[in-house]
Specification:
By secondary structure, this protein is mainly α. It is built from nine helices and no strands. The radius of gyration is 19 Å and the shape is elongated.
């Protein structure tokens, strides 16, 4: 491997180690030594990739939301069936959570009780998703005359419902429980509409 490939492999090992350790603990309980031990590197090597533990946490947040943002943007680019937009949106969320459970577990835990800088970053990501949804809603028939404020409020209702759904998906331990979560999410979103 080239030097750059080794560097990226070490960075990925640090991220994977942190996510593994976060299965049981909050981010504030993680120590740099635990992460580097799990990654199989010396503590000094950590600083070649991240300035602080908070910087590592911010990368975890970015990676956690990136897949969801990409899926949602793909949906807006025509991958969502317009006749079944609520069902398609819930299915995108379920797939996102199932594909990256460790990331969603981290987000769920840190969203309300984590380190301040991480809570702020999570809220910023949620605001970004909410704003992007408001822009999309403004294009729908019947909503073209709504004010920006009202569209943002509606978007907030949708996004908050989906966050609660993501947390419920994380807790679903079998196919029946997951189907129950899906059913409830569909009903909630339809009621909002």
């Amino acid at each position: 491997m080239s030097r750059e490939e080794r560097k990226e492999a070490t960075r990925r090992a640090i991220i994977a180690a942190a996510l593994k350790l976060l299965e049981e603990d909050s981010f504030s309980a993680l120590s740099l030594r635990e992460v580097t031990r799990e990654a199989g590197i010396v503590p000094a090597a950590f600083y070649r990739h991240f300035d602080t533990m908070d910087a590592l946490g911010l990368v975890l947040i970015d990676e956690s939301f990136r897949a969801l943002r990409d899926m949602l943007r793909g949906g807006r680019a025509g991958q969502l069936d317009p006749r079944h937009i609520i069902e398609s949106s819930v299915d995108i969320l379920i797939n996102s959570v199932n594909d990256r459970r460790e990331h969603w577990r981290f987000i769920s835990r840190e969203r309300n009780s984590g380190v301040t800088v991480l809570r702020y970053a999570i809220r910023t990501e949620i605001r970004l998703i909410t704003s992007e949804l408001a822009i999309d809603l403004a294009r729908l028939p019947g909503l073209t005359t709504w004010s920006s404020e009202d569209l943002n409020i509606l978007s907030g209702l949708f996004v908050n419902a989906m966050i609660v759904t993501a947390e419920s998906i994380e807790d679903a331990n079998d196919a029946k429980a997951l189907e129950d979560v899906r059913h409830t999410a569909l009903k909630q979103l339809r009621m909002i509409v």
